[in-house]
Amino acid sequence: MDLAGKTAVVTGASSGFGAATVRKLRDAGVRVVGGARRVERIDADVALCVDVTDEDSCVDFVAGAVEALGGIDVLYNNAGLALGRYPFTESNPGDEATVLHTNVDGAIRITRLALPHLRDEGHILFTGSIAGRQAYENAAVYVAAKFALRGFVYGLREDLLGRPIRISTIDPGLARTEFSLVRFKGDEAAARAPYEGVEPLTADDVADCVLFALTRPLHVNIDEMVIKALAQSSGGRILRRET
Ligand code: NAP
Questions:
Q1: Average pLDDT for 62-73
Q2: Domain range spanning residue 201?
Q3: Residue 232 covered by a domain
Q4: Is pTM beyond 0.90 here?
Q5: How many domains would you assign to the chain?
Q6: In 59-149, at which residue ranges do the beta strands (DSSP E only) sit?
Q7: Which residues line ligand 1 (CB under 6 A)?
Q8: CATH number, position 95
């Protein structure tokens, strides 16, 4: 399917998968509104500030996107994060709220607000994670968030069945973005460690999956794509070269 002339809204557009997807969409001739809190870092046709944990901010964001685009052909719910790698016995209310409100409530909220503006033959995509398919240690709340997101997407697919709207989730494994720096709260040494001795996915690898799902013929719905580094079999098992 040719994407030229379509419109798209991408959350988490200031970095990582979101930024890479905005680039590829624009290369394909799509007019893109990108959203994130660090709006100055967004390289899109229109960059709008949004905090997906805040209802009013999301209302303004979707209204601004619709005003700029007229209608939405592609909605990519990608904003998300993990906080910490510690056993659940060390969990705290702040991290729990941020992880759940961003990954789960944020995607649900943006979908609810954008859905009335989604054109027929539109496509809603989500960034899940392999953490939403199989648990790994010291990540219980992030695992819960991504499982919850998968449940929401399954429910959404049921409720939109019969409408000409496609729904896809991309579930990546280890990928080199700012995700790790955010997870380890700015500790650069800790953030580097997950990538040592292994070649992780890149943001472009994930953006390629988004573009693949989007460009299938309209009768084809890519429900879920799971993408991992070659040396990774699960969230908890990565073969590392001796360094
Ligand atoms: P990233 O480089 O840190 O990008 C995360 C994006 O989410 C940023 O643009 C950030 O923008 C945005 N974001 C975070 N909180 C937000 C909020 N409250 N409101 C609006 N935007 C917010 O990480 P990434 O790897 O590309 O992550 C994208 C998605 O992939 C996330 O859902 C993540 O859980 C998932 N994922 C990542 C990996 C991995 O290994 N990297 C693997 C599987 C799944 P601002 O900070 O500017 O707001």
A1: 98
A2: 7-227
A3: no
A4: yes
A5: 1
A6: 72-77, 118-127
A7: 11-18, 36-38, 50-53, 78-81, 102-103, 127, 129, 172, 174-175, 177-179, 182
A8: 3.40.50.720
